[in-house]
Amino acid sequence: MKPIQFNDKKIDSFLFMELSDLAKALTKNEEVEVEFGFRSYYDVIQQKAYVSHFWDLRERQEMIAGLKSEVYLRCIGNINHTNMLEYKAFVRKIKSANLTSFAKQLFMLLEDIRLEGICIRQRPGTKKAFVKRREVYRKYFEDQLKVNIVKSVYTDALFNAIYLLITSESPLEEIPTINQSVDLIIPFLQRELPNIYEASNTEDTTKICWTIIEVLDEVLTADMLNIYFLLPETVLLEIDNGQTFSDLKRKDKLKNDDMLTKNHDDEDKHEDALPTWHRETETTTKSFLQFDLEQGTKTDLIGQGVRKGESGDQAMGIVQGSSQQSSQSDFSQMELMEGDHEEKNVGGDSPYGKENRYAVAHQVDILSPSANDIALYRDYKTLVTPYQKKLTQTIKKTVEAKKILPKNDLHFGRLNRKLTKLLTDDRPRMFYKKTNPSTQLDAVFSLLVDCSASMFDKMDHTKSGITLFHETLKTLFIPHQIVGFWEDTADATETNQPNYFQTVIDFQSSLRKTSGFEIMQLQAQEDNRDGFAIRYLTKQLLQRIENQKFLLVFSDGEPAAFGYDQNGIVDTHEAVLYARKNNIEVINIFLANGEISEGQRSTFENIYGKFSIVVENLEELSDVLFPLLKKLLLKTIHTD
């Protein structure tokens, strides 16, 4: 199980979700996503705003301000005020220049400066983040300038100087000597760079950039070595000339590239062709027949309209006839077929989260317990019996006390026989209520066990703790299930990620006296897609009628599965939030088997909040689980 890190820094899931929500709010588009990347840019094809790893190692205040500033630039600036076709034309044009990398980075720098001004004017609340962004970048480029001068990397040094000049608050900004030829063009740059603050569109940025490049092309002999700003060429290659920004957001392209022409002479003339309508073609007929097509012809009309009904339509409707059952095809099982398809969860809008849209759930059959399984389980049961008996007695005494003891001094209920309070108290409470709770606790438990490969050396102790849960809940007649989960690494692909669930104890058999031996069949397997597994069991728990629902997750590390590295923590956290919103209490038992780092502890707090219990010594697992189970059961009694 590998850690999820960005430049040796683990993701803060709360901050990541804050950035994602910010991007969606600014664009008013639920499809927009935020991802970490080497440098910041906006992918118009995939609708992703990339924020830079540059901010990872900064102080927290600087990091938050920097990341937010990049979301502002991409989701306010690029989306609404950048001409992507101008981007592409610029890239095509600079291929003949000697300073290709320099030109690309200069263009992105100037465009970001222009967009920064637009963001602040439109949303003054963004100014604080941009001020902090400039402070950090100015210090960074000052250090880079000194380093590049010492290394004689003059082109990079000049780029560092350009940033300092363009963001300077004083017209007398002094730039250290770089070399003789570069120093001669500094006055030219001081005159030309401020023009970016007067630029009104991307075309103006391009002109300013070309003016500078044409001069520097004759002075500089080598291109830049470092990358400070990234112009996404791979994204630009997918942009066709003549497309608007709305076109760029299309995910499906028209198969045909022709244009339907209008015939104003006779709109209702069809000849032999049956006219059709869909949102990609214009409607040139008054016919009420409409069809949904997957491909069509481009038009210059704006769709989304519905044709008005006419008096002749109803008369023509008589040809529809009456419906009868067909003898050729039986579609009575269609709903069941659709249900199976949703359970398979292949592509499309996933009920288990967008990160798990290609995850497919498979149930693993349970074998008959072997003699070895039975003997091993009895050994575990012997070890946990003292805890189980003590816990059972505590719960039973608490239930009995609640059943017998009445509640006194109430404003309403049964009248108390002792009436002396009428004389002694100004506002006497003369009533009581005798409670009579059910002897059976109204609760249900699901135990979700991480069966990833890293659990190999922890599975035996885990089975011991699970045995304690099972025996205690069974004695108290509380239904529960125990499920192991893992993902098949070898068979996982981009469009199919098989996830296996091994239900060793199900709700129906959990209260049988002979149940429990099946727990021994849990074994360490491969990867773990925690968010998918939590959602999968949440769906099962929501079908239960019990008042109190608990989901306990036994794991020893962070989520790690196919294509799950970057968003696994966030997806798991969202799965936990979804369960809690549906009144399911989710608690994590982190099996460390040794001292854990602050980073690991912080990661699990990000996922589960304060409901994460760390077990550093697995031999003490039963000692840790005993008070936890006791607390949960007592809570069930008091809320009954």
| Main beta sheet | 7 strands, mixed
Summarize model confidence as the mean pLDDT: 79
Identify the strand order in the major beta sheet.
6-12-11-10-13-14-15
Give the termini distance in whole angstroms: 40 Å
Rounded to the nearest angstrom, the radius of gyration is: 34 Å
Number of strands: 15
Query: Uncertain segments of ≥5 residues (pLDDT<50)?
Result: 1-8, 241-246, 266-271, 286-294, 299-307, 309-324, 326-343
Shape: elongated
Provide the helix percentage.
Answer: 40-55%
Structural class: alpha/beta
Number of helices: 20
Portion in strands: 5-15%
Short synopsis of the structure:
With 640 residues, the protein is an alpha/beta fold. Helix content is 42%, strand content 12%.
Tell me about this structure:
With 640 residues, the protein is α/β, with parallel strands linked by helices. Helix content is 42%, strand content 12%. It contains 20 helices and 15 strands. A 7-stranded mixed beta sheet has the order 6-12-11-10-13-14-15, with helices on both faces. A 3-stranded mixed beta sheet has the order 3-5-4. The protein has a 3-stranded antiparallel beta sheet with strand order 7-9-8. β13 (548-555), α18 (568-581) and β14 form a beta-alpha-beta unit. α2 crosses α4 and α16 (459-475) packs parallel to α20 (621-638). Mean pLDDT is 79; it is low at 1-8, 241-246, 266-271, 286-294, 299-307, 309-324 and 326-343.
